[in-house]
Each structure stands twice: as structure tokens, then as C-alpha cells.
Amino acid sequence: MYIKFTVILIMLILNNLINFAQNSYFSNFSTNLVHINPAFVSSITSPEASVTYRNQWPGLKDAFVTYGASFSVPLIKYQSGVGFYFLNDKQGGGVITSTTINAIYAYNIKINPQIYLNAGLMASYYFKNLNAENLIFESDIRNSPGINGGQDIFESVRSSFWDFSLGFMAEIYSILDIGFSVQHIAQPKNYFSSSSNNMLFRNYSLHASCDIPLIRSYGNNSPVFTPSLLFQKNKQHHQLIYGTRITVSSLSFGLWAKNNFKFNFSSLTALAGFIQPNYKLFYNYDINLTRSNFLSYKMGAHEVTLLLMLQHNEKRKKNRAIKCPKL
Q1: Residue 120 burial (10 A CB sphere; 0-12, 13-18, 19+)
Q2: Rounded distance between C-alpha atoms, residue 44 and residue 169, angstroms
Q3: pTM over 0.90
Q4: In the chain, at which residue ranges do the beta strands (DSSP E only) sit?
Q5: Is 2-309 assigned to CATH 2.40.160.40?
Q6: CA 163 to CA 172: how far, in whole Å?
């Protein structure tokens, strides 16, 4: 049965590869915001490092496994920040691998004491590999002469290319964050096939989150309610993710739903986390809501994120508000 699943999985992956370019995805988008919006690195006030592991479709061995790591440093003196992001994505146990190295620069502008604007640019270099030797076909299982082996049909392909992303963020009263970003500005091609659809279409993201203390009388131990939203769209697909997290003392729990504009729900994400002054640890599980095929019960996802906040004594430089020139 596992071999049957493997064959179907490979066919699904190849279909995705030929028809559209799949972006790596993290359920805990608010903790991995540097992956979505490069402007984020100028909004932090101390260095941050994070690592993320995601196993999608855990019922099928090594279906989609993603590793992410980031390091961001605020440059308070220069009203800016720099960041580096590493991403490794494996599909089908290594049939398709994608490694991305990202460098980010973002600038921060103080409009007034309650509003900051951030703009960021990210340069990315992709390494992609299609390993035909790992493909499994019916002839490999049944020794049937009717279908050739993977090496005779598909050739192993390697490609590398540059890409760029641009993002903007607004921080309002230190509780509300709103951002917009455009990924894959250059719309590079994967070069795995000659299809015109084999490019990374521009991906547009709109995100927002707000920290709302529920009981102010408890001071720093007050429960905090954090609703958040993420909308993403490219040429062929769009998705809306919305939900909330509640944090009480050092414990955090959350729930998010994902659907399209027709309200066809694809997943429900549950979160549990442990928060300390210097680090945050989160576990997410995606509950699949699509029941249209026999693989549905195997199509959840595990995700673990560790975020480290490296403290320093320097505070955000308080610049004067921007004044409009007199006419």
C-alpha cells in the first residue's frame, strides 16, 4: 500500500511542478513573518533567530519536509535592520529539492510617536534539483515492459536563479501591525520544463495582527488576545487565513482557518506554545478539511518553531516626525 501511495504522490508532485510553482508554506506565519515580508527586520528592537521544521502529509513518509532558519539584527543607529533567511524544501523524499538563501535590508521611518513605517527588500538565490533516479513508476514495481523506468522518461535537472521581494509594514500604537509584500518580482523560471507556466508567479501578501490585553488590571500578566489575518494571491491561486491566539502568562494557544473566497475550507490549524522573555516555542498541527480523496486522512501537517530573542541595551532611536514642506 505504501508503494501505491508513493507512486501517486510522485505524480501529484510532478503535476504541481509542471502546472504551477509551489511556494514553501508555514502555518505559524506570524512567527515566520520574515519569510513573508522583508520589512519585518526593521521592526524588531533586538536581534532574533528562529528555526522551523514542517512535515506536511506525515502519513506519507517524507512527502513534503521543510526546514527554515533566520537571523535578524536591528541597526537602531541607522533606522534600519538586516536579516538572513535559509530555506530547504524536500518533496517526495528528495525527488524535488529547493534551497533558498535570502538577504534582507529594511529601513524604518518614524511618522509620529505612535506610528512607524518600514520598507524592506529581499534578494534570494534559489538552488532547485529534480532527481529522476528517486522516481518510482509502475514498471519499477511490477517489472512491466509497458512503462519505462524514471531515468528513461525524466532526466535529472538542476537550476539556480535570482529572485527579489519587496515589503512594507506599519506599526501603530505598538499593538497593531499591518503589512503588504510582493514576492517573486522577477518571476523567474524553474527550467524544469519548457512550459510557460513553469515560473514563480508574483505572490501578493496582505497581513495584519493586533495585541489586545483582556484584563488590564493584571499588568504584564494580563491575558493577551492576538487576532491575525493573512491573505495571499498569485496568478492561479489565492487563500485567506484568519484566527487568533490567546496568551496567558507563559502559555499560548491558537486556532486558524484557511479557505478561498468561495469559502471552501482546506485546513484548520491548532497552536500550542510556551513563551519566555528570551525565547518562544510553538507547535502547530494542520487538520485537513478536504475530504474529496482517499489521501485526505494522511494530509495533515506537523510544524515546530523556536524563536530566540537576543537582548541588548540599545533602544530604538527616537527620530523626529517627518514634516511636509511648506508650499
Answers
A1: buried
A2: 12
A3: no
A4: 48-56, 64-75, 80-91, 96-112, 115-130, 157-172, 176-183, 203-210, 212-213, 224-233, 238-248, 251-259, 265-276, 279-288, 301-309
A5: yes
A6: 30
Q: Cell numbers at residue 101, please?
A: 538563501
Please state, in angstroms and as integers, the Cα–Cα distance from residue 169 to each residue in 33, 37, 42, 76, following that order: 11, 8, 9, 17
Asked if 169 and 33 touch (Cβ cutoff 8 Å), the reply is: no
Q: Which three cell numbers stand for residue 264?
A: 471552501
- Which residue type sits at 206? L
Alpha helices in the chain (DSSP H): 2-19, 33-36, 138-142, 150-153
Residue 92: per-residue pLDDT = 78
170 forms beta bridges with 117, 178
**In this predicted model, what pLDDT tens digit does every residue of 197-252 receive, in sequence order?**
677 889 999 999 999 988 765 556 788 999 999 999 988 788 999 999 999 989 99
